[in-house]
Specification:
With about 475 residues, the protein is of the alpha+beta class. Helices cover about 40% and strands about 20% of the residues. Helix 10 crosses helix 11.
């Protein structure tokens, strides 16, 4: 049977301790002396420790992998300066298999604050509240503290450079897609990829620079999952077939078009959609009529056979200033936004009523009110050739070509094409048959003589110092 533990009052314990102290006074005196000597020894050791590191870095303080223990502040600055110089002069190497890439701290405008970093290094055990400083000093011999170089850089350069390297190394995931090939549906299934974690790589580069390390970084790719998957391919094909069987009719004042199976396929888009009630980041490939595809279809139709664009004024230089030689005229074009919404509503509602296209007035870009704001101030290039003695048809073609090209305006960054600007070269646009060199033979063809127009234009372009992106020599 276990003994029952009895509780002893605190007063009884204190009385017993005092009685014992009176009975054995020498024993307690000896313990007190030893304790005092121990405390004194510890205080002496701490004093010696404090004196040794007076004005110097405490033990186990690192910047990167370099230890700064025992260094004075001036020595800390000197070592930091060397580390920073190495970082700036030696680009960081990134390796992947047998390829290598570099990122330059100098080009990234990496600027180290040596003074602030030195203060942080020498400040370990000194720059906090007294009790934390004491803790840092006492634990310094047993625990290492790793600091980094205080610095700033061009984050945009770093992210852009990392993105360019990742683009060269990545094998991106392939999302599921589908297209029509000669009326036949071709489905491409999703595929996993292998890509660089760009955020993590940016952190690695910053860590190398801030630690004063120039050791290479081995690039490692992570699995990238596709965001759009096929799911049920048979269901997708069934949806496509249902959409393709629909019909719709477009009407306008001068004509109409019945959108047949081929046209319907032009309106079908393949996009990712999340399944209702399913929490996932993956979307399932879905076939449906979209506003973008509808707009593209209507835009092509309108430009092909419906639109009557505004006629821009014919411009010229008079008394050193750009002037209108022939007035402009407004045009009428399909309102793509409104017409697309109407067609899409009909398709989604599976209605058969004709869709009447909506029109809007197209104003000329250049008017007498804004001509002064075009920035055209002077002639910057000139080219001249002579066609005296040319046959009548050739002279007519040259004059007609100049008429079509003159007054062409280019917006900043826009590219000019002679062939595109001339448009159709046939009997409907004022051109006549004339001899041309074709396949090493001289044969009559509409537009004979336009080669001289384009050559003269080329001379003026060269004189103006403009960039020529493509040029086709005469036959």
């Amino acid at each position: 049977m276990a003994k029952k533990k009895e509780k002893v009052p605190a007063e009884a314990l204190l009385t017993a301790w005092v009685a014992r102290l009176r009975a054995e006074p020498n024993r307690f005196k000896k313990a007190s002396i030893l304790s005092a000597l121990g405390v004194g020894l510890l205080a002496l050791l701490y004093l010696i420790y404090a004196v040794l590191f007076l004005g110097r870095v405490y033990p186990n303080v690192f910047v990167g992998s370099s230890q700064y223990s025992g260094l004075a502040e001036s020595e800390v600055r000197e070592r930091l300066t060397k580390a920073v110089e190495a970082t700036l002069t030696q680009p960081l190497t990134l390796t992947f298999e047998d390829k290598s890439y570099t990122i330059s701290a100098k080009e990234a405008n990496w600027e180290a604050d040596i003074a602030a970093t030195a203060q942080a290094v020498i400040g370990v055990g000194r720059n906090r509240e007294w009790y934390w400083n004491l803790y840092d000093r006492l634990t310094a011999p047993f625990y290492s503290r790793h600091l980094t170089i205080t610095a700033s850089q061009d984050d945009n350069y770093l992210r852009t450079t990392v993105a360019a390297i990742a683009e060269a190394v990545d094998a991106p995931a392939v999302n599921a897609t589908a297209v029509f090939d000669d009326g036949k549906l071709v489905v491409t299934h999703e595929k996993d990829g292998q890509v660089i974690d760009q955020g993590a790589l940016v952190g690695q580069v910053e860590n190398r620079w801030s630690s004063g390390s120039t050791s290479p970084i081995e690039l490692k790719r992570v699995v990238a999952r596709p965001t759009i998957v096929v799911g049920d391919e048979e269901a997708l094909r069934s949806t496509v077939e249902t959409l393709s069987r629909q019909t719709a009719t477009l009407t306008w004042p001068t004509g109409k078009r019945v959108i047949d199976r081929v046209g319907m396929q032009q309106l079908i888009d393949f996009v990712g959609r999340k399944k209702p009630g399913v929490i996932t980041t993956t979307e399932t490939l879905t076939a449906l009529f979209t506003e973008n595809r509808t707009k593209a279809y209507l835009q092509e139709l309108a430009e092909e056979s419906i639109n009557q664009p505004a006629r821009e004024p014919r411009l010229g230089i008079r008394e050193g200033k750009v002037a209108i030689l022939e007035n402009s005229a407004p045009g009428t074009v399909v309102d793509i936004e409104t017409s697309a919404r109407a067609l899409l509503a009909t398709l989604e509602g599976q209605l058969t009523a004709p869709v009447a296209l909506t029109f809007k007035t197209a104003a000329p870009l250049i008017t007498a009110d804004n001509i002064g704001s075009l920035g055209i101030k002077e002639v910057i290039g000139r080219g001249e050739t002579n066609f005296t003695g040319s046959p009548t048809n050739r002279r007519i073609n040259i004059v007609n070509g100049v008429r079509l090209l003159q007054s062409t305006l280019l917006k900043p960054g826009e590219e000019f094409s002679t062939v595109k600007t001339l448009g159709a070269v046939d009997g409907t646009t004022g051109f006549l048959p004339e001899l041309v060199i074709k396949e090493n033979r001289t044969v009559p063809e509409y537009g004979g003589g336009l080669c001289q127009v384009s050559t003269t234009l080329f001379r003026s372009v060269l004189a103006a110092g403009l960039k020529v992106t493509e040029r086709q020599n005469h036959s």
